[in-house]
Design goal:
This protein is mainly β. The chain contains three helices and 26 strands. The two termini are 16 Å apart.
Length: 367
């Protein structure tokens, strides 16, 4: 596979005039009205920050320019991982999650320059506010992201949100919120009622047994006819204590009710988490972060509906910081692909949301 980059990586979201200029964990999609929309967690001090908000930007010109990021989910806690999905005729779901006050307070020991600033805010919060807002969260719009519902809670979380199936069902495959080692299965499938936010569990993905490696941050994609493919981040300690940061795949043939045993599709530190899309050519494309030097964003391609993958193609090489990734992609009107991700563009600068436009072509087989 040959990758052709169209220019250099460009900024989608930042807040350079303020110290609240860390943005991370984005998702991009095309809305039903043709607009591009990107969400992320923004207006932060750094990777863990009690001021994080899930924000939304629009593009009317295929990613050439973006509106200033506007908060959509802004609880009293640290709102992280912006996911977005369009559904129906004009529906939009924006997803996020957050962490406890205690978690935020403990992190202050790693931020000597701003610890008192953070603690002063955290000291204002009440147990009632924490109970109200804590969890995996989402909001629903029925007017292409102009207005949104109140905050709903989800049993599961995923970086890029749910998927709309070909029959109109909204399916959310996610990791159980707050789960560690105390449940039988970490990755579950739930349907979402887009009128009231109610959710119903319909299935679960078999547990991955690889040392102490932990499955999380899945993304599911509808192949049609009831077949769904899911890529799962697996990270932590492996069987022999090696570091694991890779992607597994599981497939459902019955719209998410039952799933195959997950199988690794990348090397043990091959990269994660992933986001799957289908190009108009029919090719499946999954993009993912790569955190071994020189760090970056890679893509893999499948020409057989996910049975095999051509992996390891560079979309963006950073060389600055391994704190990057969470890419997602959308096809533009000219057939090119726009991949949005987060990264520290320069040493010493906070992470911001970047985009890279690119094309691909299948190289001729040698004879």
């Amino acid at each position: 596979m040959k990758i052709n980059l169209c220019g250099k990586a460009e900024t989608v979201m930042s807040n350079s005039s303020s110290r609240h200029n860390y943005f991370g964990w984005p998702t991009v999609t095309r809305l039903k009205n043709g607009r591009l929309a990107a969400v992320a967690s923004g207006f932060r001090l750094d990777h863990v920050c009690p001021f994080g908000k899930t924000v939304l930007s629009f593009s009317e010109d295929e990613g050439k320019s973006w509106t200033a990021p506007a908060p959509i989910i802004d609880t009293v806690l640290d709102d992280r991982d912006g996911g977005i999905m369009a559904f129906g005729e004009s529906g939009v779901i924006v997803t996020s999650f957050n962490n406890t006050i205690e978690f935020q307070r403990n992190y202050c020991q790693h931020t000597p320059g701003t610890a008192e600033y953070r603690k002063a805010y955290l000291n204002l919060l009440t147990p009632e506010e924490e109970e109200r807002d804590l969890g995996a969260t989402f909001k629903i719009s029925h007017d292409n992201g102009v207005t949104f519902s109140p905050l709903y809670k989800s049993p599961v979380t995923s970086p890029h949100g749910p998927v709309e199936l070909d029959d109109g069902t909204v399916l959310w495959v996610g990791a159980v919120y707050g789960s560690k080692d105390d449940i039988a299965c970490h990755i579950q499938a739930w349907t979402v009622n887009t009128e009231n936010g109610n959710m119903v569990k319909i299935g679960e993905i078999p547990q991955i047994d690889y040392g102490k490696a932990f499955p999380c941050e899945p993304h599911a994609f509808d192949l049609g006819g009831g077949k769904i493919i899911c890529h799962i981040r697996v990270c932590g300690g492996g069987i022999d204590g090696e570091n694991v940061f890779t992607t597994y795949q599981s497939v459902s043939e019955d719209s998410g009710k039952t799933w195959s045993e997950p199988v690794a599709i990348l090397d043990v530190e091959g990269g994660a988490p992933a986001h799957i899309m289908r190009h108009s050519s029919g090719v499946l494309i999954s993009v993912y972060g790569y955190r071994l030097a020189p760090f970056g964003v890679k893509a893999m391609f499948s020409f057989d509906e996910g049975k095999t993958w051509d992996v390891g193609h560079d979309i963006y090489v950073n060389g600055v910081n391994l704190d990057l990734g969470y890419p997602s992609s959308v096809e533009l009107s000219d057939g090119s692909i726009l991949t949005v991700f987060y990264a520290h563009a320069k040493s010493g600068e906070p992470a911001t949301i970047l985009q890279q436009k690119w094309t691909f072509e299948k190289e001729k087989e040698k004879v």
